[in-house]
Amino acid sequence: MSSALTSFEPATGALLWQGAAGDVEAEVARARSAWPLWAAQPIAYRIETLRRFVNVVRAHEDRLADLIARETGKPLWDARTEVAAVMGKVDISISAYAERTGQKRLDAAMGARQSVRHKPHGVMAVLGPYNFPAHLPNGHIVPALLAGNSVVFKPSEKTPAVGEMLVKLYHEAGIPQDAVRLLLGAAEEGKALAAHPDVGGVLFTGSAQTGIAINRQFAGEPGKILALEMGGNNPAIAWDTPDIAAAATLVVQSAFLSSGQRCTAASRLIVKDSIADAVIGEVKKIADRLIVDHPHADPAPFMGPVIDEAAADGLTESFLYLMSNGGKPIKHMVRPMKNLPFLTPAIIDVTAMAERPDVELFGPLLQVVRVPDFDAAIAEANNTRFGLSAALIGGTPEQYNQFWTQIRAGIVNWNRPTNGASSAAPFGGVGISGNHRPSAYYAADYCAYPVVSAEIEQPRASIGVGLKPVDTSAMGD
To answer: Catalytic residues (predicted)?
Structure first.
């Protein structure tokens, strides 16, 4: 098992946090011991405890936002929106629990009743990402706790400080210490946690490579619940519109918000030939104006750095690969600060590439593909194994109807960015973007399982057919 962990601020290189990897066996055992007591609490008690959590987060709002900004590099305003989402998740989850896993009573034969109720799975493992280190794991943890599960949460090894603070806030709100456990560590701890026999399910947000490995690991374990959210290679189609500037703004928001480190970020701009020069020119003009700076800079930046030097190096290499294999640079990717993972937003026309890589480029790198007609645009948008998010910018209502019908994605938007999905709606994708267990509002579905009961207060039964007649000859007079 890995031992020492460190976390550095991407924007400064300063050491932010250090600690040791946790003990998988010990953390699962503690969560397992706490589960029956937590599950036995009335739902009203669990609701009230989670509402106290909102108040606790609000009391520490500035400190949590500052920590998120420092550990991820995202602008402080972006970190504040993440903290707001953490607080908003509780009421959304309470509504979802009532709507999607509430109790039902039906009449049945012979005066019985049919009941549908839901039970928790037990110990849930939550594996969190680094791009939204509080909001995304919280989106699993809150509905899991609400349903009566206990949780072992392993944050990304790149954002352990935010994970540690989040768990402390749960405990401060009154959620039992052992009902939510923090497991620090890297890939080894994550694998061991997912494989642990006392874990009833794994809720994962991260890369397709890791998600597929977990899915393969679960192939022989149908008794465990598995919810995967694995990112995307998301298309934005730009079509006929009288407002090129607004269309370009939506493209920039889709591609470069949070330095492109959103699983719903647009990696590909698919644009109609006849308007391509105008749209691309306006996108570049806006991208040239984007402020890239440290999270607390004044004026506030649009983008901060990517998570670390390895990510920045990988994105730089990806840009060079595209350029070396037929891509035409529109806006070069630049490293403005030596030894720090800042990147300027990059745009490259890959229309002439014979084979365009179908990978998630997790950063501010937008690929452009020009197409002659709308059918070709949809075909190009669907030319991916992923299927998380897609947007049509411009176009007619008829074209949007065709787009909605034919596109393979779990989030389909019109004249809105590809990113920024609402927590009050389901969130998930198809292909290798997910396994048909969407999160956000639908997280309630994978945090509890339905139990159907036929119930009556006294036993009543009769068999009307298929019985031999009663033998009366053996009876006395």
So the answer is: 229
Which pLDDT value is given to residue 475? 62
Provide CB contacts within 8 A for 214, sequence distance 6+. 194, 202, 204, 226, 228
229 given a catalytic annotation: yes
Torsion, Cα 392 395 398 404, to 10 degrees, reads 0
Catalytic residue among 9, 71, 229, 380: 229
129, pLDDT greater than 60: yes
- List of long-range contacts for 292-300, beta carbons under 8 Å, 24+ apart: 292/336, 292/342, 292/343, 292/344, 292/345, 294/11, 294/12, 294/73, 295/11, 295/69, 295/70, 295/73, 295/74, 295/75, 295/76, 295/79, 296/69, 296/76, 297/75, 300/75, 300/76, 300/77
User: What is the reported pTM?
Assistant: 0.94
Domain membership flag for residue 468: no
Question: Residue 74: which CATH number?
Answer: 3.40.605.10
Higher pLDDT, 111 or 7: 7
Q: Do 261 and 380 belong to one domain?
A: yes
pLDDT of residue 251: 98
Query: What residue has token string 């709002």?
Result: 61
Position 1 pLDDT exceeds 50: no
Neighbouring C-beta atoms of residue 303, cutoff 10 Å: 25
Q: Rounded CA gap, 474 and 467, in Å?
A: 18
Does 113 lie in the same domain as 249? no
pLDDT per residue as tens digits for the range 150-198: 999 999 999 999 999 999 999 999 999 999 999 999 999 999 999 999 9
Structural domain count, the chain: 2
